[in-house]
Design a protein that fits this description.
The chain has 487 residues and is α/β, with parallel strands linked by helices. The chain has helices spanning 3-11, 29-45, 62-74, 87-97, 121-129, 165-178, 196-209, 224-231, 240-246, 251-260, 273-283, 355-361, 400-408, 443-453; strands spanning 18-22, 25-28, 53-57, 77-80, 102-104, 118-120, 145-151, 159-164, 186-189, 212-215, 235-238, 263-266, 288-293, 297-301, 315-316, 320-325, 338-344, 362-363, 366-375, 381-386, 391-393, 396-398, 413-423, 427-436, 463-465.
Length: 487
């Protein structure tokens, strides 16, 4: 089913119903329909057409939603960019995606590298406001690419996953049904809209079910209690770091929030079973954990009805096939660890301009996730780690290689390796181990240079100096032999 037809259940069929609240402003679904139609006209006026790329580098705001729906209507390829990305990440993504322009705010425009067309979000919105509100003919079909979402590659440079309108339709339709979204729901949306958790799951469950959404610019743990008490959500989606923060609220507040909360979904990083248990004790709500990826959207989920088993990600979603394979690609028996391979209408079309990476990740029509897990005899899947040394901090992915390459460019650094160390809130944080020429290496200056070039969550929490890195006979760094780091 075309993605827009699924949105139309709300945009057209519930046009007078209240849809969204953002910063004290309220919008009906009819408003959302009109705003995106006006933006389509403004974008066409600026020469955009089906297949063009348009990037956004914005904190959560209504204009991101307008841009996304206009992208669906016009057949654009939208390129969401993490607001925490800095010079190095931005240069790479924008050079690779070659968008017509980047839509951003005046506060953030300064981070965009020279030579890239920058469209001010407020100027674009003002231009849209004077356009006709009617919908123009829509050209998209399910195979039309809708988004290019960058996900870090093991080589250090991130790759753009090409997600089609059909991928988002399959994912949204399944989640709306499986998680019983309905128009009476109130969804508190604090996840960033530049990643698939907030965008593909959050925005689409909202639009396809016609529920109400309160959008915040970002998650702020100091304001969480106020938001929950004031908005009284029935649904909340978060990364584990958010649920860990919510455990800090007083018991009485937690109980009040929990009494109204129909569904709390966790994903993007492992949810410790202990957090699952504590959340149930304090909130009386059993977190539903699910597992997905940028390339595949959602794959596996604990059931809405039935046991939501702590420490597991549940069972494959209806549109997804999952097999667990050994190194040779042969399925393993239940109870044996292996790599998860997935197949389904949710899986992206490949990596943008990277036939090599696409060929490496797909085999016989299956996508190799790189995640290692095990299936119990009753079908529940437990994730156990990754084939690569990915670090996940607060739900944001970090590939050590990218940071290592940058550290190695710094004066006085002879060797460098980066590992994830346990952190009570964010799950993991990156720590660098370096071998340096002490007369030349300047830790403060190195840290400052890294900060200006990389997202804040990639900044090493420490530079631990060693005489030599532990290596195998073949010279490969043995990360597990590094001395532990204590903050
Ligand atoms: C985070 N920060 C932001 C920000 N989000 N800064 C500006 N705007 C935002 N939107 C920065 C802060 O400046 C700070 O930087 C650091 O992140 C932590 O901030 P905090 O306020 O102390 O927050 P904390 O309570 O620790 O919680 C962090 C968090 C953040 C949960 C808000 O980690 C987050 O938004 N995570 C969501 C990631 C996500 O959506 N992942 C989905 C990927 S899709 P500093 O300098 O102090 O570090 C995927 C597939 C799937 O994985 O399965 O879903
Ligand atoms: P991203 O590339 O940002 O989309 O991150 C996808 C990765 O996040 C997956 O490959 C997993 O390693 C991880 N992930 C997502 N959901 C979960 C989960 N529930 N438990 C553990 N890891 C998860």
């Amino acid at each position: 089913m075309p993605l827009l037809s699924l949105f139309d259940r709300s945009l057209l069929a519930r046009s007078t119903r209240l849809a969204l609240e953002f910063n004290g402003h309220a919008f009906t679904f009819g408003d959302i329909e009109s705003r995106s139609n006006q933006l389509v006209q403004a974008l066409r006026g600026r020469g955009l057409k089906c297949g063009d790329r348009l990037a956004f580098y914005l904190q959560n705001r209504v204009e991101v939603i307008d841009l996304w729906i206009a992208g669906v209507k016009l057949g654009l390829i939208v390129v969401p960019v993490n607001v925490l990305y800095r010079e190095r990440e931005l240069k790479h993504i924008l050079a690779d995606a070659e968008p017509v322009a980047v839509v951003t705010s005046s506060e953030m425009a300064g981070f965009i590298p020279d030579g890239i067309a920058v469209w001010d979000v407020d100027a674009l919105a003002a231009e849209a406001r004077v356009q006709l509100t009617e919908r123009l003919a829509v050209v998209a079909v399910p195979d039309t690419p809708l988004a290019l979402i960058y996900t870090s590659g093991t080589t250090g440079a991130s790759k753009g996953a090409v997600l089609t309108q059909g991928n988002f339709a399959a994912n949204g339709l399944t989640l709306t049904r499986e998680w019983r979204f309905n128009e009476e729901d109130r969804y508190l949306a604090t996840l960033p809209l530049f990643h698939v958790h907030g965008l593909a799951n959050g925005i689409h469950c909202w639009l396809m079910s016609g529920c109400h959404m309160r959008l915040t610019e970002r998650f702020e743990h100091a304001r969480a209690a106020e938001w929950f008490e004031d908005y009284r959500p029935t649904v909340f989606f978060g990364v584990p770091a958010m649920f860990i923060r919510l455990l800090e609220l007083p018991l009485e507040t937690a109980q009040k929030i929990g009494a109204r909360l129909r569904l709390a979904v966790s994903g993007s990083a492992p949810l410790p079973a202990e957090v699952h248990d504590k959340f149930r004790e304090r909130y009386g709500s059993v977190i539903l954990e699910r597992y997905g990826m940028t390339e595949t959207l959602m794959n596996v989920s604990n059931p809405y009805d039935g046991e939501r088993r702590p420490g597991t990600v549940g069972l494959p979603l209806p549109h997804v096939r999952v097999k667990i394979c050994d190194e040779a690609g042969e399925p393993v028996a239940d109870g044996t660890s292996g790599e998860l391979w997935v197949q389904g209408t949710n899986v992206c079309a490949g990596y943008w301009r990277r036939p090599d990476a696409t060929a490496a990740a797909w085999k016989d029509g299956w996508f190799r996730t790189g995640d290692v897990g095990v299936r119990a005899p009753d079908g529940y899947i437990t994730l156990q780690g990754r084939r690569s040394d990915l670090i996940i901090s607060g739900g944001f992915n970090i590939y050590p290689r990218e940071i290592e390459e940058l550290i190695l460019e710094q004066p006085g650094v002879r060797e460098a390796t980066v590992v994830g160390m346990a952190d009570p809130v964010r799950g993991e944080v990156p720590v660098a181990y370096v071998v340096v020429d002490a007369a030349v290496f300047d830790e403060v200056a190195t840290a400052a240079r890294l900060r200006s070039q990389l997202a804040s969550f990639k900044q090493p929490k420490a530079f631990v100096r060693l005489e030599a890195l532990p290596r195998t006979a073949l010279g490969k760094v043995q990360k597990r032999l590094l001395p532990p780091w204590r903050s």
